[in-house]
Known about the structure:
The structure holds 2 protein chains of 2 kinds. Chain A is an alpha+beta fold. Chain A has 2 domains: 10-83, no CATH class; 96-126 and 161-334, no CATH class. Helices cover 44% and strands 13% of the residues of chain A. Chain A has helices at residues 9-25, 34-40, 42-52, 57-66, 71-83, 138-153, 165-171, 205-213, 217-229, 296-308, 321-327, 330-339, 345-376; strands spanning 100-105, 237-251, 258-276, 283-292. A 4-stranded antiparallel sheet of chain A has the order 1-2-3-4. Chain A is globular and about 100 Å long. Chain B is an alpha/beta fold. Chain B folds into 2 domains: 8-144 and 148-233, 3-Layer(aba) Sandwich (Rossmann fold), CATH 3.40.50.11310; 245-288, no CATH class. In chain B, the strands form 3 sheets. Chain B has a 7-stranded mixed sheet. Chain B has a 3-stranded antiparallel sheet with strand order 7-6-10, with no helix packed on it.
Amino acid sequence: MGYVAVKGGEQAIENACNLFAYQRIKGGSRPLAVKQIEEQLYLLIDRVMGEGSLYAPELAALAVKQAAGDTLEASFMLRAYRTTLPRIASTLPGSTARMRIFRRISASFKDVPGGQVLGPTSDYTLRLLNFDLFDETKASAQLFRRFVEHNLRSHERLPDTFPKVIEILRTEGLIVNPKSAGYSDESDGEPFDITRESLVFPAARSARLQAMARGETGGLLLLAYSSMRGYGDVHPIVGELRVGYLPVVVPDPYTKAPRVAGEVKVTEAEIIARYDSGSGKPLFTVGYGLCFGQNEIKAISMAILDRAMEAAENNSPANDQEFVLSHIDGIESMGFCNHWKLPHYVDFQSDLDRLRKAQAYHADRGKEQKTDTTNSL
Amino acid sequence: MPIVEKSKKQTRQILYNFAFLDDVAKREIRRKILKAVAVPGYQVPFGSREMPIARGWGTGGLQITLSLIEPSDTLKVIDQGCDYSVNAVNIKKFVQAVTGVRITTDTTEATLIQTRHRIPEEPMTEDQILVLQVPYPEALREVEPSEQKTRAMHAEGDYGRMWLFLYEDIIHYGEVRLSYRYPVLVNNKYIMDPSPIPRWDVPKLNMARTLFLFGAGREKRIYAVPPYTSVEPLQFEDHPFRVESFAGKRCERCGAEDTYLDEIIAEDGVTRHYYCSDTSFCDKRRRT
């Protein structure tokens, strides 16, 4: 055989890249417009922006198109693009009470001040395939749009702000004060930034929340689910879940006055967990989650893990912050998982050498033992 | 600074800095490299950036390369000893696209070499830097899963468990089972993971003329072995460290008997062929 095992790879690699791009268009149907992806697959876009850690709906849609729908790949492209952008300013901290809400629910009270606002959700849909969508046309979509918009108009407009359910409980003295409860890092200082400093353990709470906000939805869900199922002791109640738009406020570079630069769609979850009666007055504890876009599973999972990582004992995976934070990043885990496809023949050669040595040793020892037994007979 | 050698047609592709990373990132990484050089074998945490190649595919090494590279550099990239293996081709293409530097396969010609899992067979000089890609920067991970604890173990020189691990292997198997990624003691101070180079390459790290830089992108660590630093594989007096044995075998292309060989199974599934892992060195020997 020739020397093909190592040479001539360059062209093959080029061809593999081209084949991947070809696969998407070879069927001959009309190419997807980026705008269509952005509007019609908006939950996918939301997820990709969150995991890609860059709020850019149009670029996220482009990434989804280029990645042929692979969320990990698409998020990865956004992250790589993010690296090339200079950081020109940091936003000013703002309260989520100012969120322009389109969905807001509380599972802890039947009714809450401001009311339950169900908004757009698939929660209450029947998961039956809607065969009508096979024949969806521009006209039929338009008709349905008019129908919904007409219905909405007959309802009152949503108020600009809603009171926060957790705050109501807090003023009643039912909820723990994060600072006095010894939650790590509840200082008012600068938040930790895991994109500029590598995570150190124990991690500051700001670092933990940031890591989770960039985390992979499935990974977060798995760990949060393990905690709620039994490998942990967080029994959460959703205090409040809200989805809406948050103003992005940055200081004016000249006057330092706060200026609204735009808004981002976010999901926020606050979960209430059973009280910690450590010392003193028994109080409920709170877990917090916030992520880009409408991604309720991610925000709730974050909140559960935020609470779980505050547990006194590392007796389950979700309680162990090093375990959680080191394994939830989709870009890192997918990259590393994929890397096993890279050649490892040098390493395997070394493995072979050790195994052959060990086998020889084993065989020798077998012979020795045999001679021993013969002698003793 | 945009790259200038591209035509106007490609303007959309050239809106990147020289060497991709922004200046602040480069400065940070260079500072972390200096710290790593000052404390040989110590893992310096850094703000690892996301790169357009995947985590686990050499992003740590790549960030070191990109923060050091200058337009006058000549770059060589190898993967498992080979200049044309997937990972090497990927990285080479990318670095070339964002810097325009000269690429070579000749070890002696390169000023900067990025490598995955091998140290070239040809000795390197003071004027060269070898950048190694690292998947697991923590040599103690084998015995301790927690980062918080391994950092404390390094700080306290608490290496008993590592020694015990090696000892137990020898008792059970007659041999330390660690094949590649063999732990070393650097400058008589820190136990270090030399990256997944075969044991064959470990002696090349000791008192070498070249600066070795190790980058772990996913794990966000940079560490270094400066020139003329002692690097000793962990071994016992009565059980010395041994490199892979290729006794009785030689490269079927260049005839070398003193290189790390790739074992290749022939089409019949039985016959084995052996070729140099360092392909450019093999080519060179064939030419001369």
